[in-house]
């Protein structure tokens, strides 16, 4: 009986020892998220339904404290061109630069700026489909996951991803707002 009890306690101890980063929720934004995180890896698909920022929340597990990698598949469901992405993380920082790949033509993006807890990716020209951050599809074709450091077990890690629209989209938005303002002003004058 004593051996059985010792074995049971040992088995429970082994089960509790290794925990991966746990996806908690989408803190803000309307992106659809599918999480694929495992021990030592934060991995997700993020489907942008509109341009803007989506923030995801994770709790860091004991298995993630030695070396934590990051990859993501960012899908553009807006129909608008995206010229880049901005990333920021709460707590910790980006350890080294991995790769970014355009899904449509498979080209590697080299204009990646890592600055502590922030990273920005300039795609150069608008992307209307998907972008791979790191190696989310495990193609092993020279793609590298991004690294994260400075996190401890139990830390809450918020990852904010912002899709940067192409300049024409911003110009059209501002022009449209200007026209709406002019129409509203004219209606006020006519009503008075």
Question: Summarize this, please?
Answer:
The chain has 192 residues and is α+β, with helices and mostly antiparallel strands. The protein has helices at 2-17, 167-191; strands at residues 22-28, 32-35, 41-48, 53-59, 68-76, 82-89, 93-96, 100-102, 108-109, 112-115, 118-127, 130-133, 146-149, 156-165. Strands 2, 3, 5, 7, 8, 9, 12 and 13 form an eight-stranded mixed beta sheet that branches. Strands 1-4-14-6-11-10 form a six-stranded antiparallel beta sheet.
What distinguishing features does this structure have?
21% helix; 2 helices; 8-stranded mixed β-sheet; alpha+beta; 192 residues; disordered N terminus; 6-stranded antiparallel β-sheet
Description:
The chain has 192 residues and is an alpha+beta fold. It has one domain. Helix content is 21%, strand content 44%. Strands 2, 3, 5, 7, 8, 9, 12 and 13 form an 8-stranded mixed beta sheet that branches. It has a 6-stranded antiparallel beta sheet with strand order 1-4-14-6-11-10. A hairpin with a 5-residue loop joins strand 8 and strand 9 (108-109). It starts with a helix and ends with a helix. The relative contact order is 0.19.
Distance between the termini: 92 Å
Question: What sequence of helices (H) and strands (E) makes up the elements?
Answer: HEEEEEEEEEEEEEEH
> Structural class, please?
alpha+beta
Q: What oligomeric state best describes the polypeptide chains here?
A: single chain
Largest sheet: 8 strands, mixed
Mean pLDDT: 83
- The figure for the number of domains is 1
Strand content: 35-45%
Specify the number of helices. Answer: 2
Helix content: 10-25%
Shape: elongated
Instruction: Report the radius of gyration as a whole number of Å.
Output: 22 Å
């Amino acid at each position: 009986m004593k051996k059985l009890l010792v074995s049971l306690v040992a088995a429970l101890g082994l089960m509790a020892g290794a925990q991966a980063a746990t996806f908690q929720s989408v803190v803000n934004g309307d992106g659809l998220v599918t999480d694929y995180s495992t021990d030592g890896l934060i991995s997700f698909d993020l489907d942008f339904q509109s341009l803007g920022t989506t923030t995801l929340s994770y709790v860091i597990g004991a298995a993630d404290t030695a070396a934590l990698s990051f990859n993501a598949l960012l899908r553009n469901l807006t129909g608008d061109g995206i010229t880049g992405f901005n990333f920021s993380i709460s707590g910790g920082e980006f350890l080294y630069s991995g790769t970014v790949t355009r899904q449509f033509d498979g080209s590697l993006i080299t204009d990646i700026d890592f600055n502590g807890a922030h990273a920005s990716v300039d795609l150069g020209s608008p992307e209307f489909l998907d972008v791979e951050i790191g190696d989310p599809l495990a193609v092993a074709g020279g793609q590298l996951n991004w690294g994260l450091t400075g996190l401890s077990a139990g830390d809450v890690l918020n990852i904010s991803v912002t899709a940067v629209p192409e300049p024409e989209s911003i110009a059209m938005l501002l022009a449209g707002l200007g026209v709406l303002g002019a129409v509203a002003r004219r209606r006020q004058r006519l009503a008075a």
